[in-house]
Design a protein that fits this description.
Elements lengths: L1 H7 L1 H16 L7 H29 L17 H20 L3 H21 L7 H9 L1 H8 L7 H31 L11 H18 L12 H24 L5 H26 L1
Length: about 280
């Protein structure tokens, strides 16, 4: 069982499902059977694409200390068996999303294209692979939104999707600061070939600031917040930027990048919760 848990990267798959659930609840919809189908479908698809990614990259994973203990390079499961698990998960997730309509299903399948057919092969060729990689994260909120029966191009849905896209970029680059040399030795393209660690930290920080400032464009996407909630949004953004700067530039401990990584993930979860609460209070 532990092999399956590690192979499917349960925590990552759950976070993707929570992102989709944010899109669903942002519509103000109450929990129904469609929510369960959406959550399960997104989870299975995320898990299936994660397994497929490890099948695709198992040889490179074996070259990196960070990934050498993953089930396939560690010899705990064979590539054919892992491939079968991936197919079953993707098929199950696709069927579940199809029960909510063809648009959620098509969005789910598009993520396989972005992640496994574009992002994964491109990682060894260009550091710009982070762009299709970030698009993968922008899709789940749209799956949730459309699973509730709402129009895919609604400004509220686009707002959350853009936020997740912007948030993904520093998320990737933080990994490059910590594991850039490993990635390069395994044959992956890394931004660390172009910029030194301090320069990457500057890019990461200012991109984080841009992500935070983007949230203040909410009126242009049809959102309105009560004064108390607006004050909370401003406060949480200020706190995030302050802590992010501290962890990247002032904290000298060996765990500074890990702290920044946890912070940016926590920030996204808080924003998701904030938007859902606002939807039900509006």
């Amino acid at each position: 069982m532990s092999v399956i848990i590690r192979l499917t990267r349960i925590r990552l798959s759950l976070m993707v499902s929570i992102s989709a659930m944010t899109g669903y609840f942002l519509t103000g919809s109450s929990p129904t059977w469609s929510l369960m189908l959406m959550f399960g479908g997104v989870f299975f698809l995320a898990a299936g694409t994660s397994v497929l990614n490890q099948v695709q990259e198992c040889r490179r994973d074996a070259l990196m200390k960070r990934t050498a203990k993953r089930p396939i390079p560690a010899g705990e499961i064979s590539r054919p068996v892992a491939s079968l698990i991936s197919i079953l998960l993707i098929a199950g997730g696709t069927v579940m999303l199809s029960l909510n309509g063809w648009i959620p299903m098509a969005l789910g399948l598009s993520n396989i294209v972005f992640y496994n057919l574009i992002y994964t092969p491109l990682k060894s060729r260009s550091w710009l692979a982070i762009i299709p990689g970030a698009l993968v994260g922008a899709v789940p909120p749209l799956i949730g939104w459309t699973s509730a029966g709402f129009y895919i191009f609604h400004p509220n849905a686009q707002f959350v999707s853009i936020f997740v896209f912007l948030w993904q970029i520093p998320h990737f680059w933080l990994l490059m600061i910590k594991y850039g040399k490993e990635y390069e030795s395994a044959g992956f393209s890394s931004i660390s070939k172009m910029l030194n660690e301090h320069q990457i930290k500057l890019v990461v920080f200012y991109w984080g600031v841009i992500t935070s400032l983007f949230l203040m464009l909410f009126p242009f996407f049809g959102f309105s917040f009560k004064p108390l909630l607006l004050g909370f949004l401003i406060g949480i953004n200020f706190l995030f930027v302050s802590l992010f700067h501290r962890y990247l530039f002032r904290d000298r401990s060996s765990k500074t990048i890990r702290k920044a990584f946890i912070l940016i993930n926590t920030y996204a979860m808080v924003i998701f919760l904030f938007l859902v609460i606002n939807a039900f209070l509006s």
